[in-house]
């Protein structure tokens, strides 16, 4: 908990410092609804984030995701085959620089273990993720990429994972977005996750171990917890269609291929500004 406490103290100190100068800065609230569908089951995630601009280049925020999960073999889950509950509450601090032809964001997020460990919505450990993202705005397309380091594999907009992890990881992605007009476009990216040291993988799909052989790579389908040196390693690609009918709403639908896990995932994501 020490990392999360330090991050909260730092944010509070910065906020007090700029309160008078930034009194006219508005709060904002945004949310998203995501769904991933593959041979392991269906996973839905509802996420809400409240943020406040400290200055032209800084923003603090926090939120709480909620999960709804149904395994393909749902015999050991709750009535109706569904398991639901909150995940880990988080706070984050972002440095943001926007220019005409490029933008850069560097953010650190700390999450407390508020999720139910028995349902796989938390590992019971504090997690920290530092991610840096760069976008280049070309005349007919946008090039983008990100790189980060964390002690847990994070969900993304193109893959709500059927597990959560503990262990050092580096994560990377890069791709291209091509707009057709002001509200329609297509995108694609490649991604990679590389673990360092032993990884502890906690399943979101099951709540009791199942009998039978264990696939080491996809142990989260049959075991509540698995451990190994490279279990979090992953790489693959995604493609999607992006529809933004208004400035405060966006919709994505697409496909992700995870090569090590041999997963073909269909996904959707709806993003919206609440305030």
Outline the structure in words:
There is one protein chain. The chain contains one helix and 15 strands, in the order αβββββββββββββββ. By secondary structure, the protein is mostly beta strands. It has a twelve-stranded antiparallel barrel. The model is unreliable at 1-23 (pLDDT under 50).
Supply database-style keywords.
275 residues; Porin; 1 helix; globular
Largest β-sheet summary: 12 strands, antiparallel, barrel
Distance between the termini: 31 Å
Radius of gyration: 19 Å
CATH class: Mainly Beta
What's the CATH superfamily, by name?
Answer: monomeric porin ompg
Q: What is the name of the CATH topology?
A: Porin
Helix content: under 10%
**What's the tally of helices?**
1
Coarse shape: globular
CATH architecture: Beta Barrel
Q: Which class of secondary structure composition applies to the elements?
A: mainly beta
